[in-house]
């Protein structure tokens, strides 16, 4: 039955009650003990052969007949007024087909920009050129030779705070009386922590190829949300959505930074509209590092109150955010939710600076908040003389502290135990004994909370053809996380087919089967139940037909391993015994993600332990091992899941050790907007990583029992490393990343 | 990032041919060897040569051999060859120390010793190594060949004794008994340029340091030759206290600038620690050679 | 200033006219249409553009097309035999050495070169040998496992 139901949906902690279309699929979640043939078994990715052979076509690889190449002129100053652009000189260069400046009348609407005559950050786009070759487009950008009158700027958080340059209002959320609780606490700690600006740095930069055809706008976009991109293009260009097609076959990493259509697709579409030719716009690396986005820097103060035996009585978290996302306040969320505590307050201020505004970067805001909170918890453990993991266990919250609701599942205590066991935590003090190599060693831990329950709307279709091969279509693109592979596994499971007889298509809005943006760790828990529902619909129809063919009761029949069998074993026929009779017809089914259970919160949890070695002479810090235990409900594909965790940890480690956007305070310009100077870790910097998943599916949440995994692994890593550094050296650095200079300052 | 400005290109078939081309094409012509420093600079339009003369075919410039009491290294010898050379490992392990931490294997496959020295980036490692081992370089021009010691090689930031019409052809390392050498470097991440690096070579006879060379990377406008510390060490018996004192001189005598790699005080401290460690390891290697 | 050159890519000779300023990467991707090799940084930092040039791994973004005139070039498209993946490509899949796949072509070239030079590398040697290739997704462990497995199984790369 098809219904419209009202349900609470969540995206990165933003809750919304909305109507969604639901078709009841009658499925119940697979039990923890269910014997599954595909789901839960390591499976190589569906599109793997294309990815390892060079056949995979990323947006940057799309080449269309007559295609033009676009280049962007960017502001060299943090704030200024463009007084002149040599447009005629640019247009005079051979091969130049279009020049867009702030004065150009655009075919789409946008509140500000996208081209600026008063740039408000270094790297802001001033003009764009489309030409026959990329070299000509770049040459024309040079020829534009902007005259810029410099204007005053502020790029440091301290000045912005003193000048009260708020972006939006201060955001405060509290329960109880935190000041009174702090005053009464037997033990108090206060910690001020600065965290760096971090750049997503996908190896494939932002890119789009647009082709404005008479009847359709076709855009190839490196985006995490092709339907969001379609909606944005349709709205801005005032086109019906069905006349906009977004294709996102492969994406070379997103990490939150590739949302919607983006500057590049809007501009490429506009250039194509003007020139009548397909246009490719790929950010060069400098442009990507200047304008691809970032996790904003923060300065946070955390105050904790506790009883002598370590029970938290007060948590007070303040965060100053360096021009983060508009309206997005979640840095203090972990302080409000991770531990059981009655008197809590979180205050956040977003400060407006002449910097590129922050955007989503894997676990936006929550990672920053955990990095501060979990260091403060570590200080409390030291103050109370408790084992840091024991302190965390004592303050375990079995309900959502803000909403006062139970969780659909919560294996955080299991994660503490498992991480401790894997890391050899009970013996951690032995690492502090003097070492022959003169290095100081120590071990630290941190916990993680994130949402990641997903929800509706999310749809899928499944079509079984005469050859007994099923084709699943989903409304999402695979940004590298293995979504299509997981969909194949879930469909094969439900259809009782071998993996090689299920294909999955995504990455194209043309089938008009909607899926959510790949963000917030919502893809797996949103999309996989829809896939299962679609496959189940096909299975039911197939068995009904089999009942006709074999003169059997459909309820007595099951599918397994590509065969149709009766429960009593009397019938055992291949799928094709039925499907071959379909001729050109097919068996079709659709599925959708059902509503979330009322009265619950769905969250992911985890714990990581890090071991570091510090060279007290040079300040070098090396991470020697990370042990990670996460609760993400059912793991669909352990191979993909481990890889996701390892990758998240590497980005978290980089946040602790090497990555930071460095701004020259005298010019306001980022000085390390290149791969040469922005330090992404190499294979040589990477420690062994051990990963474990809690063995408990979330059967309340959805029909596959899975929660999301995109954000969780990055969240606790930096705090665990900072705590390991504290254990090793007895000191805490006031700011991350732990550059060599900061380390020596801290241990001096 | 830009596409480089247009330029002419030719492949040299001999050293003399390359020199003749340089003479003919004038000061806006440049030699390209590995190209890993030059091409990025051209993309940034920091270098805009009008002609490139590619010497990668001059295999006669690629060798490491012992001759006349010296190790002689052809200018086109790649980093990877320096890393793997047993001859160098026996006499000057400082090369393998440095080559292990210069960029990554792919860059080491392309980059050359001649290119590194001629690029003369103060943050570059081999200039410090060659300073420490008291190398001499052979420079050939229209007027013939001349041999220049490392002490006279750097004439300013990114500027060397190699003139517009010249080609650096060879690096010579005098062999003397009782030597030990080592390179110590700290970077922000594997494969990075140095925050600071120290190269040291010592020659020890009868328990005394008969000669010593120290070069520093990334802490001045050019590679730094630490003459004052060398004067202190010469004639002394090696000891931890002595090396610590040399480290203190190094910290005082370098002239780092503050940048994304670190503040000045930190770099001075680091230079002290690295100089001390390099001397300690160099002396230990000399002692094991002696034994 | 156009130069006529011959590039022998994956066993096929191609005659193309290139500008001197043009990188080998640009010539192979945009002129020959072999887009397996990627541009990640255009600065020889990330390794996504890596090709074998006369057997030597080379960052093709920082190598001029004219320099490759007459050279034997192998890109990721040339690692397998027709539709058959090479053993290394196959284990990259099985060990989870691939996520988004954008760095993978360069990784495979670097690992192939490593294994040709050293058929049985240690994990440490692999981490050094492929350290010129940046991956932002996987955390590298799957890549190290894959190279170790190929060398253990003694498959020719």
CATH homologous superfamily designation of the largest domain in chain A: Aldehyde oxidase/xanthine dehydrogenase, molybdopterin binding domain
CATH topology-level name of the largest domain in chain A: Aldehyde Oxidoreductase, domain 4
Helical amount of chain C: 25-40%
- CATH homologous superfamily caption of the largest domain in chain C: Beta-grasp domain
> Largest sheet of chain A, if any?
7 strands, mixed
Describe this entry's structure for a reader:
The complex is a heterotrimer of chains A (about 750), B (about 290) and C (about 160). Chain A is an alpha+beta fold and about 750 residues long. Chain A folds into three domains: about 1-55 and about 455-590, Aldehyde oxidase/xanthine dehydrogenase, molybdopterin binding domain (Aldehyde Oxidoreductase, domain 4); about 60-150 and about 205-280, Aldehyde Oxidoreductase, domain 4 (2-Layer Sandwich), CATH 3.30.365; about 300-455 and about 600-745, Aldehyde oxidase/xanthine dehydrogenase, molybdopterin binding domain (Aldehyde Oxidoreductase, domain 4). Helices cover about 25% and strands about 25% of the residues of chain A. Chain A is built from 18 helices and 31 strands. The mean pLDDT of chain A is about 95. Chain B folds into three domains: about 10-55, Uridine Diphospho-n-acetylenolpyruvylglucosamine Reductase, domain 2 (2-Layer Sandwich); about 65-175, Uridine Diphospho-n-acetylenolpyruvylglucosamine Reductase, domain 3 (2-Layer Sandwich); about 185-290, Enolase-like, domain 1 (2-Layer Sandwich). Helices cover about 35% and strands about 25% of the residues of chain B. In chain B, the strands form four sheets. Chain B has a five-stranded antiparallel beta sheet with strand order 4-5-10-6-7, with helices on both faces. In chain B, helix 9 (about 225-235) runs antiparallel to helix 10 (about 240-255) and helix 10 (about 240-255) packs antiparallel against helix 11. Chain C is about 30% helix and about 15% strand. In chain C, strands 2-1-5-3-4 form a five-stranded mixed beta sheet, sandwiched between helices. The longest helix of chain C has 14 residues, at about 105-115. The radius of gyration of chain C is 15 Å and the shape is globular.
